[in-house]
Design a protein that fits this description.
By secondary structure, the protein is mainly alpha-helical. The protein is built from 16 helices and 6 strands.
């Protein structure tokens, strides 16, 4: 009975193990197309579709590659163009910068020439010659209108400590000092110390040219009197300068009123020439500083002109020439610097020019005056302002306050500011050392 039922079962109800497993798998994964189930025609069509798909993919890849190559080419071309443009612009900018530098140099040179013209126009008449600086031809007469300083008596100066150093002051401890300007050491008597002048070279700036020509012209006039037998000291005594004037000081009127006529002066006085130069430096913009420069330049120029013991003694000790000034050629503007060791430094460092130095010094130096600027001058009742020529009036004038004069004659009151110290740090230290060593009031 069972055999009949088994043998009569439907072929669809009997399946092989592999067929059963495929049916089991079909429940979890859809059947994939197999070439084994495709007819030859379907297989050919499938392969044609695959080839077409592969060609399309290769075409797309090739197109993408071509697009990328084109983009890279465009970027390279743009970069090359930009680099060429940048290089061209760089050359243009360099050319423009060079042109600007050239213009700046041209403007600087033009500015220098214009400044010289302005100074020359300000100093009209300062560069005197024997033709335009007249002295009395009668040698037997009095000194007349020739401005002559008055000697003044000061206490005997202390012997300077710097006398034994190479850059020290000339020792005035001996009542009859002598100077050997050849060897630089004291030896056999050759010249009085007040007769040995600094060994200056030809002018290196406009102010040097004006002052050196002025001194030469004044010296020529004095030599005229000397050759005629009218000695300078004798003439000064005959004029009674010792009793007539209270002090030998610069004429402050020449600084405050530069256009005022100079009665009784044949030619231009020392105060006027110095004031004309001083007023051209707008950086020196305060009255105490202006008067301070006028004072030391006046003292120095009077000695260089007259070269007498009295004019030498009138100079502050620190303003008197050092051995380097006496024995080494140097520009004359160095002689007008207050600090003696600084003057020696400038002589031994000739690369520091007047323009380099004056550019910062004029706006940076100070005299440490703690009071009102109006206190540096005082009214006078005699009309004599203390300088060459005075103010020529009978009803009063102005003169330098003696308190301010003593203040000026202390080198410790002369200082330089931060701008100068940044430019010349080594020289600033020398200036400080000079000031610290001169606390006493020099004669």
């Amino acid at each position: 009975m069972s055999t009949t039922s088994n043998s009569t079962a439907s072929p669809h109800s009997i399946s092989s193990p592999s067929t059963a497993s495929q049916h089991q798998g079909s429940t979890s994964k859809p059947p994939s197309t197999s070439t084994y189930t495709l007819t030859p025609h379907e297989l050919s069509r499938k392969r044609a579709r695959d080839r077409k798909s592969q060609r399309a993919m290769r075409d797309r890849q090739k197109l993408s590659l071509l697009e990328l190559q084109s983009h890279v080419s465009q970027l390279s071309s743009t970069l090359t163009t930009q680099a060429a443009t940048f290089h061209s612009d760089l050359l243009t900018y360099q050319s423009q910068i060079a042109a600007l530098h050239s213009q700046i140099q041209g403007l600087t040179e033009e500015n220098r020439r214009l400044k010289e013209k302005v100074e020359e126009s300000r100093f009209v008449g300062s560069e005197l010659s024997l033709e335009n600086f007249r002295f009395p031809e009668n040698a037997g007469g009095a000194l007349g209108d020739l401005p002559v300083p008055r000697p003044v008596s000061y206490p005997s100066p202390p012997r300077p400590r710097e006398a034994t150093s190479p850059g020290g002051y000339v020792d005035m401890g001996n009542s009859n000092p002598v100077v050997n300007i050849v060897g630089g050491k004291a030896g056999r008597r050759e010249k009085e110390v007040w007769e040995a002048i600094p060994m200056t070279c030809p002018p290196t700036c406009l102010s040097d040219r004006i002052l050196q020509n002025y001194i030469e012209a004044r010296r020529a006039g004095i030599n005229t009197f000397t050759r005629a037998g009218a000695g300078l000291e004798k003439e000064m005594g005959e004029l009674g300068m010792e009793e007539e004037h209270p002090a030998w000081l610069p004429d402050i009127n020449a600084l405050l009123a530069p256009n005022t006529p100079e009665p009784g002066v044949d030619g231009r006085s020392v105060s006027t020439v110095v004031s004309d130069i001083l007023l051209s430096y707008h950086e020196i913009n305060t009255l105490p500083r202006k008067v301070a420069v006028l004072y030391i330049m006046y003292k120095l120029l009077n000695w260089l002109i007259y070269r007498t013991k009295s004019t030498y003694d009138q100079m502050p000790l620190w303003l008197r020439p050092t051995s380097s000034q006496l024995n080494t050629p140097h520009p004359s503007w160095i002689d007008r610097i207050p600090w003696p060791t600084a003057r020696t430094y400038l002589i031994t460092h000739p690369h520091i020019t007047f323009d380099d130095f004056a550019m910062v010094y004029s706006s940076s130096f100070d005299v440490s005056w703690p009071y009102s600027p109006s206190h540096i001058i005082e009214s006078t009742s005699t009309g004599w302002s203390g300088g060459n020529g005075g103010n020529g009036g009978d009803g009063g004038g102005i003169s330098l306050n003696p308190v301010y004069e003593q203040h000026l004659r202390q080198l410790k009151n002369w200082t330089v500011g931060e701008k100068f110290r940044r430019k010349f740090p080594e020289l600033s230290g020398i200036i400080d050392a000079d000031g610290e060593g001169s606390g006493e009031i020099w004669p």
